[in-house]
Design a protein that fits this description.
The protein is an alpha+beta fold and about 450 residues long. The chain contains 13 helices and 24 strands. Bound molecules: adenosine-5'-triphosphate.
Length: about 450
Amino acid sequence: MTESSQESKPDMEEIVSLCKRRGFIFQSSEIYGGMAGAWDYGPLGVELKNNIKRAWWKSVVQGRDDMVGMDASILMHPQVWVASGHVATFADPMVDCRSCQARFRADEIEGDVCPNCGAKGQLTEPRMFNLLFKTFAGPVENEASTVYLRPETAQGMFVNFANVLAATRRKLPFGMAQIGKSFRNEVTPRHFIFRTREFEQMEIEYFVRPQEAERWHQYWMEERLSWYVDLGIRPENLRLFAHAKEDLAHYAAACSDVEYQFPMGWMELEGIANRTDFDLRQHSEASGVNLTFFDEEAGEHITPYIIEPSAGVDRPLLAFIVDAYRQEEVRGEKRVLLRLHPSLAPVKATVLPLSRNERLVPKAREVWALLRPHFMTQYDDAQSIGRRYRRQDEIGTPYCVTVDFDTLEDEAVTIRERDSMDQVRVPIGGLVAALREKLPPC
Ligand code: ATP
């Protein structure tokens, strides 16, 4: 029985510590002192991340009749980034401290005091700092061999517009979806995995008739907001924030962000922009390749407008963990609980023998082997059963399967549910079916 549940927000330190302790997320290159703006996903982190990406793909590609997937390369022709506007304008205004040489984004500074060393009046005027990572393709390191690590996955879809159209014979409206790594030389990476230099994105480019762009923009805002709610985020911790016209990126006619109320405040998970026909026109002009669409309805060639729901993977992952985190008091003892949606939970079921008794262990391992082809599972026989339940609660495992001495007689096991801690007894022969019924398809 749950006696009380602490609903207040965890602080980020608790989350970072849980993530490291239980193998969700580690600092990159930690044994060398770490690498700013880069994080590594451990055994549970990679499962959670894959589950988020799978849930997104299912929702925006598999489950729809108007979307197709893509996977473009990270390295692209450097002209792509000239045409897209990134080489000229993908920059943040930066302020330097003359006293300690630290550098900050101008919008993170209040007044004229350096947040690092506290010096007053030592800050420079804001200067633009380009966020593109540069490297070289081939053996010669010069201007001609300069290439960029992509700062967004979107351009890989724009430059393949004609290829995808020809291969799939789609009609408007239709969309492409892509998941992949992006890189930005962020000046102040911070808030754990919220702002990093290497991150993953899940982006949709949805091509529409220009006169229908506003309606589709509205549609995608609602669609994307409900994706987060359907996967368990409490609606009161989500909101849409519409950008003022003067704050829009160079390509956008309108943009609204899906924001989550993190411990450090309301912050962006996903941007949903109306990119107009900017990208297709730019690439058409720069490449000389026609990127229009013949609209049979209108009987003319048009350049579609693009609605772009552009989400990160890492920021939503952090939001899913923060939102699921609870501290409860159960019979006078603290239990930390990750109430992750079952389709996101890294481990679906864990098999626990009541003890390391030599008769129980082989039976428990047999049950574990029975489940492994069907679900992501764990097996745990270390320490008391109570402690093992707590360990599973803390990583969000929805079901524990306990093998006890009765199992040896009746060939049945106990399934314990994470949130209610309710227990039911089921025959081993019906265990896979019973778990399948309780879990979403995975
Ligand atoms: P911000 O204003 O926070 O820098 P942005 O508006 O530049 O973000 P977009 O260009 O809209 O971000 O990118 C789409 C999504 O990609 C973001 O909503 C976010 O989830 C993710 N993303 C962007 N930059 C980063 C980053 N540095 N670290 C982690 N995720 C990022």
